[in-house]
Amino acid sequence: AIAAECRRRGIPFKVTSRYRSYTSQKRLYDAWIARGRTGLPAARPGLSTHNYGIAFDAVFPDKNRAEVVEIALANGMVWFGPGDKVHFDIFGPARWNELLRSVGAI
Known about the structure:
The protein is α+β, with helices and mostly antiparallel strands. The chain is built from four helices and four strands; from the N terminus they run H-E-H-E-H-E-E-H. It has a four-stranded antiparallel β-sheet with strand order 1-2-4-3, covered by helices on one side. The longest helix has 13 residues. The radius of gyration is 14 Å and the shape is globular.
């Protein structure tokens, strides 16, 4: 629905990642650590919403960010913010971290 609405509005929008296995997430996390935690962040394996199929990453023009975030929210997805500008999930960073703390994961 998000991609379709972006297309309808003429916004270039491409999903680049959805579900990730533990192994795939570990590879991304290890690469992020090896880069000195620079570039797009990657959560530890098992702590990423990608591992549970409730997230996606997408690229689109920065000039359309506010509009894409609005479209995502209308479809139940929350932008993770400027620290991870490609990431959307059903929680958002504050709620996801709260959930992880509540179960002792962080």
